[in-house]
Here is the input.
Amino acid sequence: MENAKRGKVVSYNKWGYIFLIPFVVVYAVFQLIPLVSTFYNSLFENYRSGLMQVGPNFIGLKNYVTLFTNGDLLIYFKNTMIMWVLGFVPQITVSLLLGAWFSDPSLRLKFQRFFKTVIYMPNLIMASAFSMLFFTLFSDSGPINSILISGGLLTVPFKFMSNIWSVRGLVAFMNFVMWFGNTTILLMAGMMGIDPSLYEAAQVDGATASQIFFRITLPLLRPILLYVVITSLIGGLQMFDVPQILTNGTGNPVRSSMTLIMYLNKHLYSKNFGLGGALSVLLFIVTGILSLIVFRINTRTER
Amino acid sequence: MNTTVKKKSKGLPIGARRAIAYAVLILVSFLCIVWFYILFINATRSKGELTRGFTPIPSTHLIENLRDGVFHGTLPFVRGMLNSLFIASCSAVLCTYFSTMTAYAIHVYNFKFKKFISAFILAVMMIPTQVTALGFLQLVGKMKLENNFIPLIIPSIAAPVTYFYMKQYMESTLPLSLIEAARIDGSGEFRTFNTITIPLMRPAIAVQAIFTFVSSWNNYFTPALILHKDKMKTLPILIAQLRSADFLKFNMGHVYAAIAFSIFPVIVVYLILSKFIVGGTTLGGVKG
Here is the structure.
């Protein structure tokens, strides 16, 4: 500190490095080293069968070959994507709609604070507890079945947990409820940033609300929409807590709601480090590519 | 569905559009609240009442359910909450302080690798921690840090997303002339950071502390791989255990009470702080 006080302007800049030390050290130790060792692990045969430890033996890219040929990866990828799309389509639709309404000055919606507070709330709820809640609510003797029966909609309880599409649907629905508020706020901020004179000009020319939405708002919102889609896709690939708790880690019925990270989690628990490593590297590559797209968007909007 | 309604209604009078907007808003708000309402009702009902089907009126057994299901139940929920609270608070403090420091380094100083480092942090910002979990687990094992809170707290020092937010905020609120002035007055760099920058960044720190706290509080994946001792477990791990337990043996009133115990404190805190949170999501995020 004494040096800095007496030195020239240039000497201050060494403080840039000093202030970066905590980040760089922690990132290197807890992210980079694990990344390298994950990659390293993916090249070895290393698992436990019963009490027997097999490996580690160097086997090159064989783990990747196994991963692609035994078929599970593709199924779990498909499951993950199906549940993501099922949740994301209503999410982006509702968010665009609500965002447009909230930011439309001619509508003058009241209670905006209240509505925003309510729709954002599920985003902060513990996903595992939310999922557990849904499991109890939708169980065979749970309140939802009881309401449906007493309302005359069903005569026998519907087994939500033993039907492929009801489990997937519930996972997608929970993701939708948890994320559409967040997306609405993001899109709304983008819509507020659009030059109001464009809207005024359109109104003077006699455009209707839907014409303004499709011809002005949507095209101008494209960078943010792309950002929302990609970040949500990255989040979708990470889908874990909700299906894990809802199906107790099994992904049942017939593993139809098993996601990629649930698969990874299974390998990590059974100490199957070879295949787990290969799976991690694949996920790293996919999310890495998607991240680069987000990076492009972020650096573009910064300018 | 809603867009088609809108499409058809070209040139609809403002009153009708407003009515549709309110209807949809009420519907989605209902979808956000109703689950927690049912949770609350069922947490107040006894085992016998629960088997008789659902009623929308709360009963009188909340205290009982909390006592038998949470405070003296088979799973250590109170301990779990204290553990979660400790980990999440430490993470929030460390994460916001050091992310501000990282942002400060990039914002204020000029040095050789500045461009590289800021581009690097932005590029890795979105890569999820799960993909390095395997190596992370092995590292934690080698460091003998299993059943320890350290591997759940210390990594939050390097949080690219928080850094990004802090840097955005700093660009709009921290003029370099202020730091120059502090230097002229003889303040050391570290002191300038602590006594001038940190107070100026307080709104951003508050928002990010809340978000870091919540994401650490809700985290299930990593803690479940590291914490195995009952005394060390956090709330999400206990919820998972509740799920995998044999359900028929449980008094459902206790189960609801345990879920309510994990969810409602967050809702209460959220309602108090909602002004910060809802506005804060976009403060430093994507700029239009």
Residues 1-10 of chain A have pLDDT under 50 and may be disordered. Chain A has 15 helices and two strands. Chain A has one domain: 69-302. Chain A touches chain B through 123 residues (CB under 8 Å).
